[in-house]
Amino acid sequence: MTQNPLTAIALNCTLKPAPAASSSDLMANQLLDALAEHDVAGTVVRVVDHDIHPGVEADMGDGDAWPTIRDQIRGADILVFVAPTWLGHMSSEAQRVLERLDAELSETREDGNPLMFGKVAVVGVVGNEDGAHKITADLYQGLNDIGFSIPAQGGTYWNGEAMQGVDYNDLDESPEATIGALKTAAANAAHLARLLKDTAYPA
């Protein structure tokens, strides 16, 4: 299996513009740190800081920031998708990213497969309310439909105590269970991405 370095892009779908503290940003960076242990270099994009127009096309016209982010996704081997929980659902920024990724279904490579075939995606969810499992399931389904491969145990999450105000980035230390799942997701993502680089899906 190839040992060449891989690349990742982490999409932080917080609703808080920079430089506000963000639990999603913390988890996105933790996932990239874990991927770095497997020779994967990555960067974080805080989606809300970019003017991503609504729609389901690859480019929605003047001022649309999505094409630049799309190029980064297309250039990476691994997509790290981190979403906060609001009212039991993923953020509107996360939903918009999925909607914009829908355009990739109509874009194919020379072998006839969608452009995202051969790319791997992992998921992180944070929130001080229920919803992490549902958001993870929705993201897995959407990303897989678009063509991303999901590795075994390809996600992690943190739910705070119900009806309390503590956020993930308020904790003195991230819980062992969350970090353990995070490290497993990163290791399996790097492993799967290298396998897919060596042996592509059939045309």
Automatic annotation (TrEMBL):
Gene3D superfamilies (UniProt xref): 3.40.50.360
Pfam families in UniProt: FMN_red
Protein name stated in the entry: NAD(P)H-dependent oxidoreductase
SUPFAM superfamilies: Flavoproteins
Residues of the NADPH-dependent FMN reductase-like domain: 20-150
Domain of life: Bacteria
